[in-house]
Amino acid sequence: MWDLACIAPTAAEVLGLPRPREAEGGPVAQVVEDLKGCGCLAIVILDGLGMATWRAAQARMPMLNRMASRHVMQLRSVRPPVTPVCFATIGTGASPERHGVREREDPFRAETIFEVARRHGRTSGVAGGATCSATRVLGRWSDVTRRVGSDGEERDDLILAAGLRIIEEDQPDLLFTQFVALDSASHDYGPFSPEAAEAAGALDGRLGRLLGTLRERGYGVLALADHGQHPIEPPVDGKRGWHDDSTQESMIVPLVWAAPEEIEPRAR
Predict the structure, then answer these.
(1) What is the residue-wise DSSP string for 201-247?
(2) CATH class of domain segment(s) 4-262
Protein backbone atom coordinates (compact mmCIF):
# COMPACT_ATOMS: atom_id res chain seq x y z
CA MET A 1 0.00 0.00 0.00
CA TRP A 2 1.21 3.50 -0.83
CA ASP A 3 1.77 5.90 2.06
CA LEU A 4 1.90 9.68 2.50
CA ALA A 5 5.46 9.80 1.20
CA CYS A 6 4.08 9.41 -2.33
CA ILE A 7 2.38 12.82 -2.39
CA ALA A 8 5.37 15.14 -2.94
CA PRO A 9 6.92 12.95 -5.66
CA THR A 10 3.54 12.60 -7.37
CA ALA A 11 2.95 16.36 -7.26
CA ALA A 12 6.44 16.97 -8.62
CA GLU A 13 5.90 14.56 -11.50
CA VAL A 14 2.53 16.12 -12.38
CA LEU A 15 4.13 19.57 -12.48
CA GLY A 16 7.18 18.39 -14.43
CA LEU A 17 9.56 18.93 -11.52
CA PRO A 18 12.23 16.69 -9.97
CA ARG A 19 11.20 15.10 -6.71
CA PRO A 20 12.57 16.55 -3.44
CA ARG A 21 16.10 15.31 -2.71
CA GLU A 22 15.30 13.22 0.36
CA ALA A 23 12.02 11.80 -0.95
CA GLU A 24 11.75 8.08 -0.27
CA GLY A 25 8.35 7.58 -1.86
CA GLY A 26 7.83 7.46 -5.60
CA PRO A 27 5.10 8.97 -7.77
CA VAL A 28 1.81 7.12 -8.15
CA ALA A 29 1.78 6.31 -11.86
CA GLN A 30 -2.00 6.34 -12.26
CA VAL A 31 -2.36 9.75 -10.62
CA VAL A 32 0.44 11.14 -12.79
CA GLU A 33 -1.14 9.70 -15.94
CA ASP A 34 -4.53 11.21 -15.09
CA LEU A 35 -3.19 14.66 -14.11
CA LYS A 36 -0.14 15.00 -16.36
CA GLY A 37 -0.41 18.19 -18.33
CA CYS A 38 -2.24 20.14 -15.62
CA GLY A 39 -0.41 23.43 -15.42
CA CYS A 40 -1.14 23.78 -11.71
CA LEU A 41 -2.08 21.51 -8.84
CA ALA A 42 -4.05 21.89 -5.59
CA ILE A 43 -3.51 19.54 -2.65
CA VAL A 44 -6.44 19.66 -0.24
CA ILE A 45 -5.95 18.08 3.19
CA LEU A 46 -9.20 16.90 4.79
CA ASP A 47 -7.77 16.69 8.29
CA GLY A 48 -8.90 13.62 10.22
CA LEU A 49 -10.95 12.03 7.41
CA GLY A 50 -9.75 8.45 7.63
CA MET A 51 -11.38 5.80 5.47
CA ALA A 52 -13.48 4.61 8.43
CA THR A 53 -14.72 8.13 9.19
CA TRP A 54 -15.57 8.69 5.52
CA ARG A 55 -17.54 5.44 5.35
CA ALA A 56 -19.50 6.41 8.46
CA ALA A 57 -20.37 9.84 7.01
CA GLN A 58 -20.56 8.89 3.33
CA ALA A 59 -24.19 9.91 2.94
CA ARG A 60 -23.17 13.45 3.92
CA MET A 61 -20.34 13.74 1.38
CA PRO A 62 -21.75 13.66 -2.17
CA MET A 63 -18.99 15.80 -3.69
CA LEU A 64 -16.17 13.61 -2.40
CA ASN A 65 -18.16 10.51 -3.37
CA ARG A 66 -18.51 11.75 -6.95
CA MET A 67 -14.78 12.44 -7.16
CA ALA A 68 -14.07 8.97 -5.80
CA SER A 69 -16.37 7.36 -8.35
CA ARG A 70 -13.64 8.16 -10.89
CA HIS A 71 -10.39 7.96 -8.97
CA VAL A 72 -9.69 6.74 -5.43
CA MET A 73 -7.07 4.76 -3.56
CA GLN A 74 -6.12 4.11 0.03
CA LEU A 75 -2.93 5.39 1.64
CA ARG A 76 -1.22 4.54 4.88
CA SER A 77 -0.42 7.41 7.22
CA VAL A 78 2.97 7.68 8.94
CA ARG A 79 4.10 6.66 12.40
CA PRO A 80 3.26 8.48 14.53
CA PRO A 81 0.14 9.72 12.67
CA VAL A 82 0.38 13.17 14.23
CA THR A 83 -0.55 16.13 12.04
CA PRO A 84 2.83 17.99 11.96
CA VAL A 85 4.67 14.74 11.26
CA CYS A 86 2.19 13.83 8.52
CA PHE A 87 2.43 17.25 6.88
CA ALA A 88 6.23 17.12 6.84
CA THR A 89 6.08 13.77 5.05
CA ILE A 90 3.44 15.05 2.62
CA GLY A 91 5.60 18.08 1.82
CA THR A 92 8.93 16.28 1.42
CA GLY A 93 8.22 12.67 0.45
CA ALA A 94 10.49 11.65 3.32
CA SER A 95 9.79 9.43 6.31
CA PRO A 96 9.62 10.98 9.79
CA GLU A 97 13.01 9.47 10.57
CA ARG A 98 14.47 11.30 7.59
CA HIS A 99 12.74 14.69 7.74
CA GLY A 100 13.12 14.96 11.52
CA VAL A 101 9.90 16.89 12.22
CA ARG A 102 7.92 16.01 15.35
CA GLU A 103 6.48 19.38 16.38
CA ARG A 104 5.20 22.27 14.26
CA GLU A 105 8.26 24.45 14.71
CA ASP A 106 10.92 21.75 14.28
CA PRO A 107 13.58 22.34 11.59
CA PHE A 108 13.45 20.19 8.47
CA ARG A 109 16.24 17.81 7.48
CA ALA A 110 14.68 17.26 4.04
CA GLU A 111 13.97 19.41 1.00
CA THR A 112 10.34 20.40 0.44
CA ILE A 113 8.30 20.41 -2.75
CA PHE A 114 8.02 24.19 -2.29
CA GLU A 115 11.79 24.63 -2.53
CA VAL A 116 11.90 22.44 -5.62
CA ALA A 117 9.14 24.48 -7.24
CA ARG A 118 10.87 27.79 -6.48
CA ARG A 119 14.20 26.55 -7.81
CA HIS A 120 12.52 25.77 -11.12
CA GLY A 121 10.64 29.04 -11.42
CA ARG A 122 7.27 27.81 -10.15
CA THR A 123 5.20 29.41 -7.39
CA SER A 124 3.39 27.98 -4.38
CA GLY A 125 0.77 28.96 -1.81
CA VAL A 126 -0.64 27.65 1.49
CA ALA A 127 -3.99 28.45 3.13
CA GLY A 128 -4.83 27.32 6.66
CA GLY A 129 -5.45 28.22 10.26
CA ALA A 130 -2.87 30.37 12.04
CA THR A 131 -2.15 27.61 14.55
CA CYS A 132 -2.48 24.67 12.15
CA SER A 133 0.11 22.50 10.47
CA ALA A 134 -0.48 23.67 6.90
CA THR A 135 0.73 27.15 7.77
CA ARG A 136 3.14 26.45 10.62
CA VAL A 137 4.84 23.38 9.15
CA LEU A 138 4.61 23.99 5.40
CA GLY A 139 3.70 27.67 5.17
CA ARG A 140 7.21 28.75 6.10
CA TRP A 141 8.40 27.36 2.73
CA SER A 142 5.71 28.68 0.38
CA ASP A 143 5.75 31.88 -1.66
CA VAL A 144 2.31 32.98 -0.41
CA THR A 145 0.85 31.90 2.95
CA ARG A 146 -2.54 33.06 4.20
CA ARG A 147 -3.22 32.33 7.88
CA VAL A 148 -6.64 32.79 9.44
CA GLY A 149 -7.54 33.04 13.11
CA SER A 150 -10.66 32.04 15.07
CA ASP A 151 -11.69 28.61 16.34
CA GLY A 152 -14.54 26.24 15.69
CA GLU A 153 -16.27 25.52 12.42
CA GLU A 154 -16.12 29.12 11.24
CA ARG A 155 -12.35 28.73 10.90
CA ASP A 156 -12.90 26.41 7.93
CA ASP A 157 -15.04 29.07 6.26
CA LEU A 158 -12.16 31.52 6.67
CA ILE A 159 -9.70 28.93 5.37
CA LEU A 160 -11.89 28.43 2.31
CA ALA A 161 -11.97 32.17 1.72
CA ALA A 162 -8.18 32.35 2.10
CA GLY A 163 -7.69 29.52 -0.38
CA LEU A 164 -10.01 31.16 -2.91
CA ARG A 165 -8.19 34.44 -2.51
CA ILE A 166 -4.82 32.82 -3.21
CA ILE A 167 -6.21 31.14 -6.33
CA GLU A 168 -7.80 34.31 -7.65
CA GLU A 169 -5.07 36.81 -6.73
CA ASP A 170 -1.83 34.83 -6.79
CA GLN A 171 -2.59 31.83 -9.04
CA PRO A 172 0.25 29.67 -7.70
CA ASP A 173 1.37 26.59 -9.57
CA LEU A 174 1.04 24.55 -6.36
CA LEU A 175 -1.54 25.18 -3.62
CA PHE A 176 -1.96 23.46 -0.25
CA THR A 177 -5.16 23.95 1.79
CA GLN A 178 -6.01 22.32 5.15
CA PHE A 179 -9.56 22.06 6.52
CA VAL A 180 -9.66 21.25 10.25
CA ALA A 181 -13.22 21.33 11.66
CA LEU A 182 -13.88 17.61 11.11
CA ASP A 183 -10.75 16.66 13.04
CA SER A 184 -11.84 18.89 15.94
CA ALA A 185 -15.38 17.44 15.98
CA SER A 186 -14.00 13.90 15.88
CA HIS A 187 -11.74 14.60 18.85
CA ASP A 188 -14.56 16.17 20.84
CA TYR A 189 -17.41 13.77 20.05
CA GLY A 190 -15.84 10.72 18.41
CA PRO A 191 -15.20 10.06 14.71
CA PHE A 192 -18.47 8.15 14.22
CA SER A 193 -20.69 10.57 16.14
CA PRO A 194 -23.57 12.62 14.67
CA GLU A 195 -21.48 15.73 15.29
CA ALA A 196 -18.60 14.35 13.24
CA ALA A 197 -21.01 13.38 10.45
CA GLU A 198 -22.39 16.92 10.44
CA ALA A 199 -18.86 18.33 10.24
CA ALA A 200 -18.09 15.95 7.37
CA GLY A 201 -21.11 17.27 5.49
CA ALA A 202 -19.98 20.86 6.00
CA LEU A 203 -16.49 19.88 4.86
CA ASP A 204 -17.92 18.39 1.68
CA GLY A 205 -19.78 21.61 0.94
CA ARG A 206 -16.60 23.66 1.33
CA LEU A 207 -14.71 21.21 -0.83
CA GLY A 208 -17.33 21.67 -3.54
CA ARG A 209 -16.97 25.45 -3.45
CA LEU A 210 -13.19 25.22 -3.62
CA LEU A 211 -13.32 22.72 -6.47
CA GLY A 212 -15.55 24.99 -8.54
CA THR A 213 -12.92 27.71 -8.55
CA LEU A 214 -10.09 25.23 -9.10
CA ARG A 215 -11.88 23.91 -12.18
CA GLU A 216 -12.30 27.39 -13.59
CA ARG A 217 -8.58 28.11 -13.11
CA GLY A 218 -7.40 24.82 -14.60
CA TYR A 219 -6.09 23.11 -11.46
CA GLY A 220 -5.74 19.40 -11.02
CA VAL A 221 -6.68 18.28 -7.50
CA LEU A 222 -5.43 15.79 -4.95
CA ALA A 223 -7.69 15.48 -1.89
CA LEU A 224 -6.51 13.34 1.00
CA ALA A 225 -6.34 13.05 4.77
CA ASP A 226 -3.26 13.14 6.94
CA HIS A 227 -4.66 10.57 9.38
CA GLY A 228 -7.97 9.17 10.62
CA GLN A 229 -9.30 8.76 14.14
CA HIS A 230 -10.64 6.01 16.38
CA PRO A 231 -13.13 6.30 19.25
CA ILE A 232 -11.93 6.16 22.84
CA GLU A 233 -14.20 5.23 25.76
CA PRO A 234 -14.24 6.39 28.44
CA PRO A 235 -13.18 9.84 27.22
CA VAL A 236 -9.61 10.96 27.92
CA ASP A 237 -9.28 14.61 28.93
CA GLY A 238 -12.75 15.16 27.54
CA LYS A 239 -11.84 13.71 24.13
CA ARG A 240 -13.83 10.87 22.55
CA GLY A 241 -11.64 10.48 19.47
CA TRP A 242 -7.91 10.04 19.00
CA HIS A 243 -5.27 9.07 16.45
CA ASP A 244 -2.23 6.91 16.94
CA ASP A 245 -0.75 3.91 15.14
CA SER A 246 -2.71 1.34 17.14
CA THR A 247 -5.71 1.08 14.78
CA GLN A 248 -6.44 0.95 11.05
CA GLU A 249 -9.10 3.60 11.65
CA SER A 250 -6.33 6.09 12.39
CA MET A 251 -3.79 4.84 9.87
CA ILE A 252 -5.71 4.27 6.60
CA VAL A 253 -6.78 7.39 4.68
CA PRO A 254 -8.25 8.14 1.25
CA LEU A 255 -6.64 9.79 -1.73
CA VAL A 256 -8.96 11.02 -4.48
CA TRP A 257 -7.94 13.06 -7.50
CA ALA A 258 -9.43 14.85 -10.47
CA ALA A 259 -8.28 16.66 -13.58
CA PRO A 260 -9.96 20.05 -14.11
CA GLU A 261 -12.38 18.72 -16.73
CA GLU A 262 -13.51 15.98 -14.32
CA ILE A 263 -14.61 18.48 -11.65
CA GLU A 264 -18.28 19.43 -11.72
CA PRO A 265 -18.89 23.01 -12.85
CA ARG A 266 -19.62 25.43 -10.03
CA ALA A 267 -23.31 26.22 -9.59
CA ARG A 268 -24.22 29.71 -10.72
Answers:
(1) HHHHHHHHHHHHHHHHTTEEEEEE-S---EEEEEEETTEEEE--TT-
(2) alpha beta
